[in-house]
Design a protein that fits this description.
CATH superfamily: Vaccinia Virus protein VP39
Number of helices: 8
Shape: globular
Number of strands: 8
Largest sheet: 8 strands, mixed
CATH topology: Rossmann fold
CATH architecture: 3-Layer(aba) Sandwich
Distance between the termini: 24 Å
Structural class: alpha/beta
Strand order of the largest sheet: 1-8-7-2-3-5-4-6
């Protein structure tokens, strides 16, 4: 099977992943954002933070959105440290974040041992205007490598700006990323390599990895979203991905 999905806490599951066993970490952790004060960040659910009052969907909440700023930075550093251990030399990390948590995310990446290489942007053309303010129409992808970049290991040329709207018709997660964006990002992993996502959510990164000929290792804490991810991952497999048992002799 070209994918493995662990159900449970990310730090606990990562401890069981062997050293130097994945080629890229591509993940969208809970931002613990969306509030001006500690009370606003920790006292509201993910739905309250990231869903407008007139939203047409009624998607399930997800855990992990209740840390204050200092504990979030420490926790993210631990996650990225374990991910670093599991990644091969010259492997890559791509970590989604928003404008509020951008400084914390770049700090955590470097504290975990990664060499910070830059920031890419996901531009959302359909985003809410705010009177008297600049429109918040981007989320960010902080990226780095484990040691030096090895351009011969995976000689691809990837853009630094991705434009796509958040899924609407087939949306199954509050913070779901467009699969077309993720299919471009997983190309940072060499063909046939393994992508790790400690925060699998509804499985979009895994679907993108399988579609692009990469293997996938995911972790998801929510039983609700793990079940959705499992279904989507199985649907992304082709007939050739299954090993069919022959007749018994």
């Amino acid at each position: 099977m070209p994918y493995t999905l662990h159900r449970g806490d990310a730090l606990t599951a990562l401890a069981g992943i062997p050293d130097n066993s994945v080629d890229a970490v591509i993940t969208d952790p809970p931002y613990n954002s969306g509030g001006r004060t500690s009370g606003e960040r920790t006292g509201r659910s993910a739905r309250a933070k990231y869903t407008s009052g007139d939203a047409e969907h009624d998607l399930a909440n997800f855990p992990g959105e209740n840390r204050d700023q200092r504990s979030y930075g420490y926790w993210l550093t631990l996650l990225l440290t374990e991910s670093y251990r599991a990644t091969v030399e010259s492997g890559t990390a791509l970590v989604f974040t928003d404008w509020r948590q951008l400084p914390t995310t770049t700090d955590a990446l470097q504290a975990a041992g990664w060499t910070w290489r830059g920031i890419a942007s996901w531009h959302k053309p359909v985003s809410r205007p705010q009177k008297g303010r600049l429109k918040q129409s981007c989320e960010y992808i902080v990226w780095g490598t484990k040691g030096p970049v090895d351009p011969d290991r995976n000689p691809v040329y990837l853009p630094g700006l991705y434009t796509a709207s958040q899924p609407r018709k087939d949306r199954v997660h509050i913070t779901q990323k467009p699969v077309e964006v993720m299919q471009e990002l997983v190309k940072i992993c060499p063909p046939g390599g393994t992508v790790l996502d400690p925060f699998t959510g509804s499985g979009t990164t895994g679907v993108a990895a399988l579609r692009e000929g990469r293997k996938f290792v995911g972790v998801e804490l929510s039983d609700h979203y793990a079940a959705i991810a499992e279904q989507r991952l199985r649907s992304a497999l082709t007939r050739d991905d299954f090993e069919l048992a022959g007749p018994e002799e």
